[in-house]
Specification:
- The complex is a heterodimer of chains A (412) and B (478).
- Helices cover 19% and strands 35% of the residues of chain A.
- Chain A has 412 residues and is α/β, with parallel strands linked by helices.
- Chain A has three domains: 193 residues, FAD/NAD(P)-binding domain (3-Layer(bba) Sandwich); 133 residues, 3-Layer(bba) Sandwich (FAD/NAD(P)-binding domain), CATH 3.50.50.60; 84 residues, Sandwich (Immunoglobulin-like), CATH 2.60.40.
- The model of chain A has no long low-confidence stretch (mean pLDDT 96).
- Chain B has 13 helices and 24 strands.
- In chain B, strands 1, 2, 9, 10, 11, 12, 21 and 22 form an eight-stranded mixed β-sheet that branches. In chain B, strands 14, 16, 17, 18 and 19 form a five-stranded antiparallel β-sheet that branches.
- In chain B, a hairpin with a 4-residue loop joins strand 23 and strand 24.
- Classes of the chains: A alpha/beta (412), B alpha+beta (478).
- The interface between A and B is large, with 54 and 58 residues.
- Bound molecules: flavin-adenine dinucleotide (2 copies).
- One flavin-adenine dinucleotide (FAD) binds next to helix 1, strand 3, strand 6, helix 3 and helix 4 of chain A.
Chain lengths: 412, 478
């Protein structure tokens, strides 16, 4: 086997891995290595050729490649090493095993490890759409890869299920490529993705958005010939009397992302049943102290800017850990109060610093007060005009001397 | 094109017959209208090698299944087919079911299945803790086994090719020519094939072939079976095939590990007129949930990674029939190979070969029949050392294309250039599992299209999922 030594090994070279590697370097780790299975760095952003990245971080609207391009330049300048075309198969406390066509099986030993494998898309089977199994049913991200990286058009008459961001972006992309997008169908009574994407990708192109609707059947033996859609009742059960058939050759699914955690699970790292990603503290440290995690592998982010910010913390902490400078103290669990589905980090170590608590709500709500409390002690209150499960919220609080932590969202 | 024997259908049954005939000095051609071997029914079933314990005693099906089961140890070892003797448990959940056990055991004896054993409640829960704790007791059928049904047919076909048979795919039989009272050849979408003998192993469509020779004595009424496949990591698994106590109407719905460690749950049994309707339905899938929960209350169907259905070629009037006729000579007709055809195919091969001899086919035994076949190397199953060596030999084994099942580009290229070339996305999937994991091809699909196009030297828009109209992409972007 081919052996490699490093201080910090980063698994995945998407925006999370890149930001983490840079920050590890900047925080004193000498030998930082990114292992990436693709032939290039950039992760999912390689296929996101639309603008909309970097508004928060750079105050500019960049395309995906422009956004990660900036990080790649910095990483190169700092001397971050990369091993491309290398799929990681196993992660241990201080080792990473990957396979690579040039070197064969590589065994990397590292003082700390950062997981940044991103996420994958939920499939047709996950949501159990009945019907036949023809060609032409794609997840939106797969279609995006085919179109934007392989220049292959996936179909001409399209129905999109799910109003996630990728779905809406693909509705616009397919339209610009001459396809007819018949409808974007969403089972919930609210939008899954960002409002700005609805305006720019659907409204501007006259693509109908059907809320409280779902696909109840797929027809066609060889290639998709049509899909049947129907309205759903308040329990999300289809009302079959409202069913109607839409002729199409393609069904795109934008029905959610799941953190890619096969490796994490195999390493016996504790995984949150809610986010489906590893549980972390504010240093993005997992239940195995030498292993850190950041980006979509931890929880699905809608804005890459947040990913970069969070990954910076992971990189810094992993560098300190590698230099034996990261202190380990007892952590407290962050509680989820009213209308809060999850908070990331899941645990916080009391310290003389401010911590960003990222969280998502369970249901949309208007005119709310967001509070973070430590028992009877209120650490933060903030008003919001509306909150939405599709848009992540952030609350920054000082965690010095706290003995508990709870995030809640209540009506004002 | 000329054959001594023309076999119609490259499912489990047709392929097994074809391979059996290559043990003799014969020129054998097997045709199928599909793009790959593996059949219709033969690729969507429970994948169990049955013992025949519950067959109708004295029937042809009983004879063939009981004779088939013991052959699989050697056959699967010779042909490199994944196979495991995991055994089946029949738990009796109600008192009424418990009272039925002696009868089931007696029927097994009548079928000459002598190794069925009683299990107590404690014994069952010790070996299969996820079974309903209400269980009263049950039976254990040790030789009920699981197989990879795709690799089974591919391996049999490849072995047949190694022994001189020819497979013609994308070749649909549209008519059969007769001279007086005997068949002499078949019209196909790929030209006329002259044949001294013809075997009809067309599964669901065997009645249509029978009609072509002028036989109208039965019809095929498909009986749909829907299934769930669950993720390998699902929280509630079983180690054996867990079968319900059969009722008068159906064998019922089971839960079993697949050869790759997923859970298979189903099937339904729905009589339908449409031979092309392989859709899954909410009602069908819900009925599986309701029934299987009685056996395995903790089953986690939300961990499903796919749902599919298969159509049993149910015969009306019922029963497995292998017929020769006085008024249609040089012809063998198989029908009603309904619920155990994967298992009995191996004995059907020998049975049909003998029938052909009886109706006049000259069969000269070959002493150079090749018994062994080696499958494509499976990189994920090698040790790290072996993987390392393989990659240094061929760098393509170091490129993982399917992340869920760890399938490499090297294996895909091997499959495309194998004796029965895999030329479609589904053919790759069935041979290697690329696209069969939890992301269902979301990640590897685009790459598989690219590799297929490159290796077959065609444009990606020529690449199909399976059949000729199932295109994956429709041309370059603007
Ligand atoms: C279609 C789409 C549109 C989006 N649009 C916007 C937008 O307009 N604005 C915005 O701000 N954000 C947008 N986002 C979100 C943003 O792109 C993501 O939040 C961000 O890419 C997540 O970064 P990541 O590094 O965690 O994951 P990824 O970008 O997915 O990177 C993960 C990397 O890990 C590698 N990897 C995984 N497993 C292994 C392994 N076993 N071995 C080696 N390498 C491995 C992968 O190949 C990949 O390169 C969009 C996302 C998508 C999918
Ligand atoms: C739900 C279900 C569960 C089952 N479970 C099991 C089990 O656990 N164990 C078991 O042993 N059996 C099981 N079976 C039964 C088994 O799958 C079948 O008996 C067996 O696959 C039949 O094989 P076959 O080759 O006859 O048919 P098929 O696999 O259907 O093959 C017939 C072939 O003929 C071809 N063909 C048809 N017409 C033409 C034409 N005109 N020209 C050219 N080619 C043609 C078709 O394309 C097809 O490839 C199950 C079946 C189902 C549906």
């Amino acid at each position: 086997m081919y052996k490699i030594d490093c201080d910090v090994c980063v698994v995945g070279g998407g925006p999370a891995g890149l930001a983490a590697a840079i920050s590890a370097k900047q925080n004193g780790a000498e030998n930082v290595l990114i292992v990436e299975r693709d032939e290039a760095l950039g992760g999912i952003l390689q296929q996101c050729i639309h603008p909309g990245f970097g508004l928060k971080l750079f105050n500019e609207e960049l395309t995906g490649p422009e956004y990660y391009g900036r990080f790649v330049i910095v990483a190169k300048e700092l001397g971050v090493k990369t091993l491309l075309n290398s799929m990681v198969l196993e992660v241990g406390e201080e080792s990473v095993i990957c396979i690579n066509s040039e070197h064969g099986v590589c065994e990397i030993s590292a003082k700390s490890i950062i997981l940044a494998m991103g996420c994958r898309e939920r499939t047709r089977a996950n949501i159990m759409i009945p019907g036949t199994r023809p060609a032409g049913v794609y997840t939106a991200g797969t279609a995006q890869r085919l179109i934007n990286r392989q220049n292959e058009m996936v179909g001409k008459k399209v129905v999109i299920l799910g109003s996630g961001d990728i779905g809406m972006i693909m509705a616009r992309r397919m339209t610009l490529e001459g396809a007819k997008v018949e409808a974007v169908v969403e089972i919930m009574d609210y939008l899954a993705g960002l409002t700005r994407n609805r305006v720019q990708c659907l409204d501007d192109f006259g693509i109908p958005l059907l809320l409280s609707h779902t696909v109840v059947n797929i027809k066609g033996n060889d290639r998709v010939e049509s899909v049947v859609i129907a309205e759903v009742d308040e329990n999300k059960k289809p009302i079959m009397s409202t069913a109607r058939e839409i002729e199409c050759d393609t069904l795109l699914l934008s029905v959610g992302l799941i953190p890619e955690n096969e490796l994490t699970g195999k390493a016996n790292i504790e995984i949150s049943p809610v986010t489906k990603g590893p549980k972390v503290n504010q240093y993005m440290q997992t239940s195995i102290k030498s292993i850190f995690a950041c980006g979509n592998v931890v929880h699905v982010n809608d804005l890459v800017d947040n990913v970069s910010a969070e990954s910076k913390k992971a990189g810094a902490a992993a560098a300190l850990y590698a230099q034996k400078k990261l202190k380990s103290k007892a952590a407290i669990t962050v509680e989820t109060g009213e209308n809060v589905r999850y908070v990331c980090p899941q645990t916080v170590i009391p310290a003389d610093e401010k911590v960003d608590l990222y969280f998502r709500v369970m249901k949309p709500q208007k005119n709310v007060i967001i509070t973070v409390t430590d028992g009877d002690n209120t650490l933060l209150t903030r008003k919001a005009i509306k909150v939405n499960p599709g848009e992540m919220e952030k609350a920054t609080v000082s965690v010095k001397d706290i003995s508990s932590l709870k995030v809640s969202v209540k009506e004002a | 094109m000329k054959a001594d024997v023309l076999v119609i259908g490259a499912g489990a049954v047709g392929t097994a017959i074809t391979r059996e005939l290559t043990k003799y000095r014969l020129n054998v051609i097997c045709v199928d209208k599909r793009e790959d071997v593996g059949g219709d029914c033969s690729k969507s079933n429970s994948a169990i090698i049955h013992t025949g314990y519950d067959a109708k005693p004295g029937s042809l099906e009983s004879e063939l299944v009981v004779a088939a089961n013991p052959q699989y140890d050697k056959l699967t070892a010779d042909l490199d087919i994944p196979f495991k003797r995991i055994g089946a448990i029949l738990p009796a959940i109600t008192d009424e079911q418990f009272a039925q056990l002696p009868e089931i055991k007696e029927k097994a004896l009548k079928n000459r299945v002598y190794d069925v054993q009683y299990l107590s409640k404690e014994q069952i829960l010790a070996i299969e803790p996820n079974i309903n704790p209400e269980v009263k007791g049950g039976l254990f059928i040790p030789r009920e086994s699981i197989i990879d049904p795709f690799i089974y047919v591919v391996a049999m076909a490849e072995n047949a090719v190694a022994n001189g048979a020819k497979f013609m795919l994308n070749t649909e039989v549209t008519g059969i020519r007769k001279d007086g009272d005997r068949v002499i050849g078949a019209e196909t979408t790929n030209g006329y094939i002259e044949a001294d003998y013809i075997v009809n192993a067309a599964g669901l469509f065997c009645d249509e072939i029978a009609n072509m020779v002028g036989k109208f004595d039965y019809t095929v009424v498909p009986r749909k079976g829907q299934f769930y496949i669950l993720d390998k990591n699902t929280g509630c698994k079983v180690n054996h095939i867990v079968l319900p106590i059969p009722t008068k109407i159906t064998k019922g719905k089971l839960m079993t590990p697949t050869i790759d460690g997923n859970m298979l749950v189903g099937p339904t049994a729905e009589d339908l007129p449409d031979k092309y309707d392989k859709s899954t339905t909410t009602e069908g899938l819900d009925s599986i949930r309701a029934d299987v929960q009685k056996l395995i209350p903790g089953v986690m169907l939300q961990d499903t990674i796919t749902q599919f259905s298969g159509l049993r070629p149910n015969r009306n009037p019922e029963g497995l029939n292998i017929d020769v006729y006085d008024d249609v000579k040089h012809y063998v007709n198989l029908s009603g190979v309904r619920s155990t055809g994967l298992t009995n195919s191996i004995s059907v091969g020998a049975y049909v070969a003998n029938l052909l001899r009886e109706i006049g086919l000259k069969m000269e035994f070959k002493d150079d029949f090749i018994e062994k076949r080696k499958g494509i190397v499976c990189i994920r199953e090698l040790s790290r050392e072996e993987q390392h060596k393989k990659i240094l030999e061929n760098p393509l084994y170091g490129n993982i294309v399917c992340r869920c099942e760890s399938v490499t580009e090297g294996e895909i290229v091997d499959a495309i250039h194998s004796p029965i070339p895999a030329t479609t996305v589904d053919a790759i999937k069935r041979r290697l599992r690329a696209g069969m994991g939890r992301c269902q091809g979301g990640f590897c699909g685009p790459k598989v299209i690219e590799i297929l196009a490159r290796e077959l030297k065609v444009d990606p828009k020529e690449i199909r999922k399976n059949n000729s109209k199932s295109y994956m992409v429709c041309g370059k972007v603007k």
